[in-house]
């Protein structure tokens, strides 16, 4: 009777005999879920670490490069570079780019034969500029310095390129007026100086370039031609 009952129960409940195997398969499923959870945590940590690294690298490129005014890094366009080079035609001597960013203007000027120097407060951009100059084969004609422009004298440069913002231009105009000589040329990109009258202007919109020859701004030519008559006794 007992055997018949057992057989009867097995026939009427076909899933009853499968209980043990089914229960036996639950453990592997739990282990697989744990593995997937572990991999998920690892993937999340890896993504988080990657984003943190990218943030650490990218942040210096977009934070202000000058302390006195907010001047974020904005790369020079190809048109701006060509306009600057156009304003440097028939010029020679040393050149400095104030706020040189990733070194595009300095490298382009060096390829035209200038001994070019860039000043930039952002160390990441300076290191990248040095790499680009080495890659382009002009590292011997270029130098990049990590420095605040307000602490640097530009008196020994004959050509000055400036990428600035309106807030800094009045003070920078005064600084350059005190430090540069009559034969020096200043090229302003994106924003002009407030008081000087440009001798040349080229480009449109954000690619506009203003050129100032200090010999005209200071009236050096008039002083040079001025003759003091001798008084006869």
From TrEMBL:
GO biological process: methylation; positive regulation of sensory perception of pain; regulation of mitochondrial ATP synthesis coupled proton transport
Subcellular location: Mitochondrion membrane
Membrane topology: Single-pass membrane protein
Residue runs in coiled coils: none
InterPro entries documented for this protein: FAM173A/B, SAM-dependent_MTases_sf
Any GO CC annotation of this UniProt entry: mitochondrial membrane
Keywords: Membrane, Methyltransferase, Mitochondrion, S-adenosyl-L-methionine, Transferase, Transmembrane, Transmembrane helix
Ranges that cross the membrane: 39-58
Keyword rRNA processing: no
Domain of life: Eukaryota
GO molecular function: protein-lysine N-methyltransferase activity
Primary localisation category: mitochondrion
Family: Belongs to the ANT/ATPSC lysine N-methyltransferase family.
Protein name: ATP synthase subunit C lysine N-methyltransferase
Organism: Elachura formosa
